[in-house]
Design brief:
With 176 residues, the protein is an alpha+beta fold. Helices cover 32% and strands 22% of the residues. The longest helix is centred in the N-terminal third of the chain and has 41 residues, at 2-42. Residues 40-53 have low confidence and may be disordered. GO terms for molecular function: carbohydrate binding. It comes from Oryzias sinensis. This is C-type lectin domain-containing protein.
Length: 176
């Protein structure tokens, strides 16, 4: 009888081992799926069409952070700098047409009153622009010294407006 009980206990503990292995494998699979989804949402390969989510997006040799809240231009820039980045500088047509989030978004371009020029946050002068028709215009004699991407269905989509207005924003930092 004791041999029979030993065999039964051995079989029972073997089944428990298989159950533990099966449950552990199942949990590992669930964890792997969660990691894959998280990575997919946080780092998008260059061939991706920019999905409607917020966080860091990879494009070319840069990482871009798309905000999910609105702030004035200066606070938006401060947020970027706290992330080790700065507001986006549009260097290429691909960058300009790539971000179509269908809502106004700050970029790193401002008007310098003392020089009467448009400058990027890194100090470089604006050389190639994507102003919407009639922009920049200082609408109703307002001091519109900051720039947003506004008209998403058009390549030329920049609009000037007061820096105290609140907008979403895009940060950029080198991915290397």
């Amino acid at each position: 009888m004791s041999k029979f009980l030993n065999v039964c206990q051995h079989l029972h503990s073997g089944r428990n081992t298989y159950r533990i292995v099966a449950v552990s494998f199942g949990l590992l699979c669930i964890l792997q799926v969660a990691v894959n989804i998280t990575l997919r949402l946080s780092v998008c390969k260059p061939k991706c069409k920019y999905p409607q989510f917020f966080g860091w997006v990879y494009f070319g040799s840069s990482l871009y952070f798309i905000s999910s809240t609105k702030l004035p231009w200066l606070q938006s820039r401060d947020d970027c700098q706290q992330r080790g980045a700065d507001l986006v500088i549009i260097n290429t047509k691909e960058e300009q047409v790539g971000f179509k989030f269908h809502r106004p978004t700050w970029i790193g371009l401002t008007h310098q009153e003392e020089t009467m020029s448009w400058n990027w946050v890194d100090g470089t002068l604006l050389t190639e622009s994507y102003w919407a028709q009639g922009e920049p215009n200082g609408y109703m004699d307002r001091n519109e010294s900051c720039v947003e991407i506004r008209f998403f269905e058009q390549e030329n989509s920049w609009n000037d407006l007061p820096c105290y207005d609140q907008n979403f924003w895009i940060c950029e930092k080198n991915a290397l």
